[in-house]
Design brief:
Chain A: Pfam families: ABC_tran (PF00005). The structure holds two protein chains of two kinds. Chain A is of the alpha/beta class. Chain A has eleven helices and ten strands. In chain A, 36% of the residues lie in helices and 25% in strands. Classes of the chains: A alpha/beta, B mainly alpha.
Chain lengths: 265, 452
């Protein structure tokens, strides 16, 4: 299933987009992430896999500082995007989040029109000078979200009236509308049926051309299908990180092997 | 997973007679308990409905007569010698004639009417004043001063009947009770009966009860709710203007921005406690702080509004926080995820979704404040004070006034039984306002209901 990706992996640029060193996260007294070091490449899909509660989503939320919104969460360590420390006191998380888009587990369109859903980000970041500009941005984002053809005739219908898969693609379109450089996806397909999952996966593969995509997934098949790099988390530790093909065919750590063969998790 | 789990084989034979067609004792008992519980529920609801019906029924039965008032149509000869002795029709000079001057004119007119209808009575013509209200004299005088050209003519007035006559037509006053009453004699009632047959005494809808001012203890027939209604209105303006912005701002801060620590915990507990503080405590606080310390005017709707604001704030804060809490966190995540600041996320996405809950809570809080009496007693918004319409907005806030529930309380404690009917009538007006506010709350909630 994943052997045909070997050739595509070669296209991957080798420059490092995100570099994390000795990242620790505490939720109150729980030590959720323990000394994680990882380098995430540009124009690559990186999958985080691991059993529930292993910290992969927590780590993902460190990258755009969404953990700031949780009072009890404490993040230490060094995360750099393009060499800039995102936890620097001078960094405004708002600017960071414009650069690092996020798609959530459950499709969460705003209870507004499809157009307003996509236009919201560009509006608050001042990306459009006028209505025409904004229309262009919205169309481009919806095309990139592979949902333009389905919604172009009803841009002003509520986004919440779409099907689950369409809603998730709308959320992806919303995320790319602010022209991010990194796209974080937290189990984007867990609420979708296999057909919608297939569409979103295709889309992720498309997005790889422009963005560094990080995806958290519970499905090892999905990780194998869409990613070039895979990181395996277990109990807050990063156990193994490497090329997806390597991880799935020839894991170095016995824990990884146990997980991908279905013995732990 | 690897070692096959040992499933205990049910070696024993299936117990005999375990058919699902026949219900066993255990199931029967369970079903009976369920049925009993359902009956308790229905009984409780029926009891509640019965109470409500009795309550509303007694209010309507006792109060609806207050909306009707008895009037006497009487032609009055406006004797120029009495009302305008100087004969120059100058309203300013005519103003020197007091109601003492006018009273004999109306009494004479009444006696003339009785004579004209050919009613035989042993009542002295000079005692005809028992038939009409003292307000009727002022009514005639006001009309004359407003239209001096009427002097010297005979004008038909619709004057207020006295409260005894009104009570007689409403079966409150009977010939038995009149025997012990020195204000009116059975002879007067005979006159009323005859005039009624002639169509001179009529009962009709009394707008003055809804829009009029309060009257003195001896003139229940003249008393109305209008000025107290304005008092309530100005109070509600103060309450809405202060408690909505303060309450919503406080809730947004506490719910969305404040850190979770000991201090915010204490604040939270105290807000819940404040909601349970008896309203009279807020009244005495208002008396001490607003009137004695800050020296705001006594009995003013402004002070009443401030006190009720203190009382309404916890209600609004609690309901607003509940409304904010009910907005799914995924909406906040979505907004933050596209790079909205915390404030943008709250004001663009969370607040619009919480709006129906906030509005409902606010209106319920206002309705509560509208019906509140106890604190108003302490700041002096009760008594014979709702007598004049405010001259303008400033005087509406600052001049002594009452409020609807305080006016009802005031009427209920007055001695004249005619005020009893008016107290019930006042309750009907108050309830109409409360129903209207609740209806608005429901409509707003429907209108702003989250459209996902």
């Amino acid at each position: 299933m994943y052997d045909n990706r070997a050739s595509e992996s070669a296209v991957t640029a080798d420059d490092i987009k995100i570099e994390a060193k000795r990242v620790n996260v505490h939720y109150g007294t729980t030590h959720a992430i323990k000394d994680v070091d990882v380098s995430i490449l540009d124009k690559t899909v990186t999958a985080f896999i691991g059993p529930s509660g292993c910290g992969k989503s927590t780590f993902l939320r460190c990258i755009n500082r969404m953990n700031d919104t949780i009072d009890v969460a404490r993040v230490t360590g060094d995360i750099r995007i393009d060499g800039e420390d995102i936890n620097d006191a001078r960094v405004d998380p708002v600017q960071l989040r414009a650069k690092v888009g996020m798609v959530f587990q459950k499709p969460n369109p705003f209870p507004k029109s499809i157009y307003d859903n996509v236009a919201y980000g560009p509006k608050i970041h001042g990306l459009a000078k006028n209505k025409g500009d904004l229309d262009d941005i919205v169309e481009r984002a919806l095309r990139r979200g592979a949902i333009w053809d389905e919604v172009k005739d009803r841009l002003h219908a509520p986004g919440t009236g779409l099907s689950g898969g369409q809603q998730q693609r709308l959320c992806i379109a919303r995320a790319v509308a602010t022209e991010p450089e990194v796209l974080l996806m937290d189990e984007p397909c867990s609420a979708l049926d296999p057909i919608a999952t297939g569409q979103v996966e295709e889309l992720i593969d498309e997005l790889r051309r422009d963005y560094s995509v990080v995806i958290v997934t519970h499905s090892m098949q999905q990780a194998a299908r869409v990613s070039q790099k895979t990181a395996f988390f277990h109990l807050g530790n990063l156990i193994e990180y490497g090329d997806t093909d390597e991880i799935f065919t020839n894991p170095k750590d016995p824990k990884t092997e146990s997980y991908i063969t279905g013995r732990i998790g | 997973m690897t070692d096959a789990t040992q499933i205990p084989s049910s070696g024993a034979a299936r117990p005999a007679g375990k058919s699902i067609i026949t219900t066993d004792d255990r199931t029967k008992k369970r079903n009976a308990a369920e049925k009993r519980f359902r009956m308790y529920g229905i009984a409780a609801i029926l009891a509640g409905i019965a109470c409500l019906v009795v309550l509303l029924g007694s209010i309507l039965l006792n109060g609806v007569t207050a909306f009707q008032q008895t009037f006497i149509q009487v032609p009055v000869y406006l004797n120029p010698e009495a009302v305008d002795p100087n004969g120059n029709r100058d309203p300013e000079e005519m103003g020197s004639a007091t109601t003492f001057t006018y009273k004999p004119i109306v009494v004479d007119a009444m006696a003339a009417l009785v004579e004209e209808r050919g009613i035989e009575t042993e009542i002295d013509p000079g005692d005809m004043d028992a038939l009409f209200s003292a307000a009727a004299v002022a009514q005639v005088r006001d009309r004359v001063l407003a239209n001096p050209e009427l002097v010297g003519e005979t004008v038909t007035f619709n004057i207020l009947a006295s409260s005894r006559v009104d009570g007689y037509l409403k079966d409150r006053v009977t010939r038995d009770s009149v025997a012990r009453d020195k204000n009116i004699d059975a002879g007067h009632l005979d006159i009323v009966d005859e005039l009624r047959a002639e169509g001179d005494v009529v009962k009709r809808f009394n707008w003055d009860f809804i829009f009029g001012a309060d009257a003195s203890e001896s003139r229940p027939e003249q008393a109305g709710m209008g000025v107290a209604m304005l008092g309530s209105f100005f109070m509600m303006l103060v309450v809405l203007g202060l408690s909505l912005p303060i309450g919503v701002a406080a809730s947004i801060y506490l719910e969305e921005f404040a850190p979770q620590n000991r201090l915010t915990d204490i604040i939270e507990v105290n807000i819940s406690n404040l909601a349970a503080v008896p309203s009279i405590v807020f009244g005495i606080l208002g008396l001490a702080v607003f009137i004695q310390f800050m020296e705001f005017p006594q009995s003013a709707p402004l002070v009443g509004g401030l006190v009720l604001t203190l009382m309404t704030l916890p209600t609004i804060i609690i309901s607003t926080r509940a409304a904010l809490k009910s907005v799914p966190p995924s909406i906040r995540d979505a907004a933050l995820g596209v790079g909205a600041s915390k404030m943008q996320a709250v004001f663009h996405h969370v607040l619009p979704l919480a709006m129906p809950g906030i509005l409902t809570g606010t209106i319920i809080g206002l309705a509560q404040a509208l019906g509140e009496t106890a604190p108003l007693l302490l700041i002096g918004m009760v008594g014979y004070i709702a007598t004049n319409y405010p001259d303008g907005v400033a005087s509406g806030f600052l001049d002594p006034n009452s409020a609807m529930p305080a006016q009802i309380y005031e009427w209920a404690k007055r001695a004249d039984p005619a005020y009893y009917e008016r107290a019930w009538g006042g309750i009907i007006i108050l309830l109409v306002f409360l129903f209207a506010m609740n209806a608005i709350a429901i409509l707003l909630r429907r209108k702003f209901e989250r459209r996902w």
